[in-house]
Amino acid sequence: MRKVVFFTAFAAMVLGAVNVNAQKYGKTPEDSSACLINNSLYQEFYKQKNYKDAYQPWSKVLKHCPNYHVNTYIRGANILKYMIANAATPAERDKYIDEYLAMQDARTMAFGEEYNNIAQKAKILSEYRPDSKEQIYKLYKEASEKGGDKLDAQYCPLYVTATIQYLAYIKANNEQMDMLFTAYDYATSTLESIISNDKKLLEQLKASGNAKEIKKVETDMKNATSYLAITEEIIAPYASCEKIIPIYEPKFKTNPNDLALLKKITTNLERKGCTDSELFFAATENLHKLEPTGKSAFLMGTMLMSRDQSKEAAVYLEEAVNKLEDNDAKAKAAFVWAQALMNSGQYAAARNVANQIPQYDKSLEGKAVLLVANMYLRSAVSCASHEGKIRGAAWVAYDEAARAKSIDPSLADEAQKVMNSARGQWPLKADMFFNSIQPGQGFTVGCWIGKGTTARSRD
Description:
Elements: H1 2-18, H2 29-47, H3 51-64, H4 71-85, H5 90-111, H6 114-128, H7 133-147, H8 155-169, H9 178-208, H10 211-235, H11 241-254, H12 259-271, H13 278-290, H14 294-306, H15 310-323, H16 327-343, H17 347-360, H18 365-378, H19 392-407, H20 412-424, H21 429-434, E1 442-445, E2 451-454
Antiparallel strand pairs: 1-2
Helix pairs in contact: 1-2, 2-3, 3-4, 4-5, 5-6, 6-7, 6-8, 7-8, 8-9, 8-10, 9-10, 11-12, 12-13, 13-14, 14-15, 14-16, 15-16, 16-17, 17-18, 18-19, 18-20, 19-20
């Protein structure tokens, strides 16, 4: 009785403000009045986590003024979850689930983002009606088609999971498994796009010093990165080369010049490391002939690298770097280009390319420096003076590997291996003595390297 008296008095107080906002929140003055009263009532209950008593006034807010505030939907989710969990009968539970689903449509009408609300409906069904596998899959598919790369990152791995469950439910044949790779391709592309955009935004924000926004973008990027790892983990049992290739081979034979199919084949085979297959070779070649782009040039280079045709690969990888617009993609292509040049013995050119990599992606600086260290190490014999006894290139190889280690501690083990190999090629003190070189003195390595270093012995 006290609760009724209290909230009657509370409602009377709210009415004092209603006349000021008449017809501001609903279609009629009466709707606005009901909106303000019920919004205040349900929020008081909500603050106390009394979701049962919050339900009725909240429902009226949703009915009378669905555009009032996005919190109506955020809080409504918690209220309806409680009502579903505490429903007295299966029929009552179904009623609240239907309301939860309908709320997503109302949110679309009020605040847009239809794609995210469609995906949320799929998520709700997954939790409360998991047997609706076809409907869940179709909702995620619709959300992906309508949202593109704007779909919230959390739904990407869920879409892949829903596809796997649906395919198991219909006992899919090999041809139908292509649906899974459509979902996977969408999910990974979307998450990679989110991560790439967040990186660019972070660079801008760090220049402005907006700490609050920086933290928000860093969190978004961290979440997207986590979802990408989850997606890769989900797909792993279904995405070996032995499983992917038989799915796409018959499709390729039937439509070898279908651009959409070629892009799907090359992207998925490249992602899963199937670049040494005949299918990847043929599809990549056709794609680059039909639509030469930075991406197709990169794929051609990758394919040729897998066949140990580094010299030929370098030509395509240079084209890729010149044509690609996204800096992350440029950095990736430049790294493989530098490797191709190194493998074909073009060390000076390879170093020039490696030095460009941090301009595209600063996070790859350590790897680029370590790549240069490997170039120096490979040149130790050919660049040695005095009949190969003094291998000054091994000194600069050690220096560069140590620098890579300091730039990126995650490379410590890999860098240490290069340092150990380089140290193993340092001269003995006796050899240094007979070549008039003292440990600790300055030494300039000639050849293509042209760098100064410090003379050291291995004994």
